[in-house]
Amino acid sequence: MNTVVSATSLSFGYVPQVKTVNSISLDIGSGQIYGFLGPNGAGKTTTIRLLLGLLSPHAGSVALFGQPVSRKSWQLFSRIGAMIETPSLYEHLTAVENLEIGRRIRKLDPGMCSHVLEIVGLTASARIKVREFSLGMKQRLGLAVALLGKPELLILDEPTNGLDPHGIIQVRELLQTLNQDYGTTILMSSHILAEVEKVATHIGIISKGQFVFQGTMQALQSLSFQDSTLLLQTNDNGKAALVLKDHYQVEANTAQTISVKASSKAQTAQICRLLCDAGLDVYHLAATANDLENIFLKMVNR
Ligand SMILES: Nc1ncnc2c1ncn2[C@@H]1O[C@H](COP(=O)(O)OP(=O)(O)OP(=O)(O)O)[C@@H](O)[C@H]1O
């Protein structure tokens, strides 16, 4: 796997003594969708600015496509599309005119504007002035600007900010299409886990300028099994509680079910085995996993 974004021990502060970004390291491989999560003020935008060479780190380094980043890395930047916070658009110009400016500056193919408008679903609104656009349409036009030049890497800071649920789904589907059909590597930030969990392959969670979690989406999901509760129903719940109580915390729940604290899939399997070995019939065994949003909140509030 080729590493597209690599940051090593990045630190930065706007004011002396305060590290807004504190020794952050991250690697994003080609074809990944990296969800960069953190509450408001955690340091996501600052990190993104550092990755794009818009701020110079006080310590550490950034490499994109294996090459060190500086403000003069024009060759590198032509391979990247970025949208930081709200898109910068000319309200008095139409969608296509906004795109045309970027296309001409970058000397891109004349067909590029209609191509990116089609990708973001704005073909029918190409000749409408941006001041008449809804927030969702502006966000999609911002994405279209970022897509000019067919970037291999897309860096999007809170691309679903301010969108309604329908707009969020549209952006999510768009990012999935770009990733699957064009192999685009994507870094997207958000402060809401639910907005990235359906699309991200990898997750980094930042709090107060430091990572509190980095790994695959699968690894984050497996945390939801930690300290989960199993609901059990057997042909003899009293006996089941006796069998399990030496190993697990068991509570009588209702007349029909007992609940057992388990902290991993392996423990769930062991509970099942203990019951079967004791000759019990297991009618129902269901894990009530922790909500991912709660896990995220616990991490960032530590
Ligand atoms: N130009 C600046 N000058 C001084 N402080 C700044 C500046 N930009 C950001 N900050 C501060 O740095 C901290 C991190 O801000 P940053 O925008 O990177 O966080 P964020 O995770 O992107 O937050 P949000 O989700 O609210 O955009 C905040 O406390 C913010 O007030």
Q: Write the CATH fold name of the largest domain.
A: Rossmann fold
Rough outline: elongated
Helices and strands, in N-to-C order?
EEEHEEHEHHHEHEHEEHEHEEHEH
The CATH homologous superfamily of the largest domain: P-loop containing nucleotide triphosphate hydrolases
Q: How large is the share of residues in beta strands?
A: 25-35%
Number of strands: 14
Main sheet makeup: 6 strands, mixed
- Please give the count of helices: 11
Bound molecules: adenosine-5'-triphosphate
Structural class: alpha/beta
Question: Which CATH architecture of the largest domain is right?
Answer: 3-Layer(aba) Sandwich
The percentage helix is 25-40%
Tell me the quaternary state. single chain
Residue windows where pLDDT falls under 50 for at least 5 positions = none
Kindly report the average pLDDT value. Answer: 89
Report, as a whole number of angstroms, the end-to-end distance: 33 Å
Protein name: ABC-2 type transport system ATP-binding protein
GO molecular function, one term: ATP hydrolysis activity
Organism: Dyadobacter soli
InterPro entries: AAA+_ATPase (IPR003593), ABC_transporter-like_ATP-bd (IPR003439), ABC_transporter-like_CS (IPR017871), P-loop_NTPase (IPR027417)
